[in-house]
Specification:
Length: 94
Amino acid sequence: MFMQSVAQELAHLKIRVNGIAPGAIRTPINRNAWETPEAEASLLKLIPYERIGEPADIAKATVWLASDQSDYVTGTTLFIDGGMTLYPGFREGG
């Protein structure tokens, strides 16, 4: 809500405010979720795109949001999660 409020306040100044919501990204903070084959297999059950995100996935989206290519995008959250937020437990029937 904070991001949306700020975006609404600044839109008339052509200042864009957006959020990025990363999913499971292969970083040291969540190493235990992917460092063993068993842990990775368990995590991949939650990701429809069938791979763990990489830091570059977040970086590319961030660069796009900061560029003029996304000029008309403001007040939104971009979920970069391989579909994790679509619905939980999609392979188990939900």
